[in-house]
């Protein structure tokens, strides 16, 4: 029940897609809800899968990128030969494109200072509870901190290149944005939202029965008080084991699909001001109070305008970068050995 934080920026998006799958997978990892144990990272593989103007793309790097993309998009189960081949080709094409862009950045004299790489690494580390968790994520991704920093340096160089040669030149007018909005109004609907507060008594699904019984008894006692009219926010502040307790259990507004299913079903099934019964999830036992509800609505153009313009600019930049990579490929010596 934690909302994910995403990094924005046209150049970052393009650069990460081309060269930073492992870093992206690591960055997203702390925000995930509890899930099945991830597949083991691939072992170091010898040899190369391609050379780009004499620069080798190592098989170990390719396997790590392939693993990161499969793991990130839930493609860890066995696929048929055709699907496997298509994914491998896509990953290799992106890595070749990334290498071409990096080489172009060097030719254009793009420089990345070490402190910029250190800052990027520091930002990534902040997404983890501690250094131990960060190192565990590194191990799972099959990379070292030195390799990660090298990848970040390349990403930042590509980012600078794209910023100065493409993003700075891409423009989107208000008229273009308005036309897009009018043709795609169905994409700008605000889904139904609920605003709720909750009290959580934590207990793991595999906890001993005695622990479950004790947690159940505590939540039952709190439910009686909530139903009797005791101040819900105060009950949450004094008893809830969720970080939201600091705000009286307030979780803010959320749409369907943002909370775990049992919690979502219970919350959206309540009337404003109503308190639920005991709701069990993988986090423990909850009591939910619905404090507000918003019906589905159409987002006004003025509200969506900035987002539309940013997305349209991103699309224009990606198209321009794609054409540029195609031009670089024509003049490059590329050997694929995959």
Topology, element by element:
Elements: H1 10-19, H2 21-28, E1 48-52, E2 55-58, H3 59-72, H4 81-107, H5 114-125, H6 131-141, H7 145-167, H8 174-183, E3 189-190, E4 193-202, H9 209-227, H10 232-239, E5 250-255, H11 261-268, E6 275-281, E7 284-294, E8 297-298, H12 301-330, E9 334-336
Antiparallel strand pairs: 1-2, 1-9, 3-8, 4-5, 4-7, 6-7
For the residues shown, what is the average pLDDT? 87
String of helices and strands:
HHEEHHHHHHEEHHEHEEEHE
Q: Give the neighbour order of strands across the main sheet.
A: 5-4-7-6
Q: If you consult CATH, what is the topology of the largest domain?
A: Triger factor/SurA peptide-binding fold
- Text of the CATH class of the largest domain: Mainly Alpha
Instruction: Tally the structural domains.
Output: 2
Based on the coordinates given, report the CATH architecture of the largest domain. Answer: Orthogonal Bundle
Query: How far apart are the termini?
Result: 41 Å
Query: What is the CATH homology-level superfamily of the largest domain?
Result: Porin chaperone SurA, peptide-binding domain
Major sheet size, sense and barrel closure: 4 strands, antiparallel
Structure, explained:
This protein has helices at 10-19, 21-28, 59-72, 81-107, 114-125, 131-141, 145-167, 174-183, 209-227, 232-239, 261-268, 301-330; strands at 48-52, 55-58, 189-190, 193-202, 250-255, 275-281, 284-294, 297-298, 334-336. It has a four-stranded antiparallel β-sheet, sandwiched between helices. A three-stranded antiparallel β-sheet has the order 2-1-9. Strands 3-8 form a two-stranded antiparallel ribbon. The chain folds into two domains: 10-174 and 307-336, Porin chaperone SurA, peptide-binding domain (Triger factor/SurA peptide-binding fold), CATH 1.10.4030.10; 192-294, Chitinase A, domain 3 (Roll). It has twelve helices and nine strands. Residues 1-19 and 30-38 have low confidence and may be disordered. It is α+β, with helices and mostly antiparallel strands and 338 residues long. Helices cover 53% and strands 15% of the residues. The two termini are 41 Å apart. The longest helix has 30 residues, at 301-330.
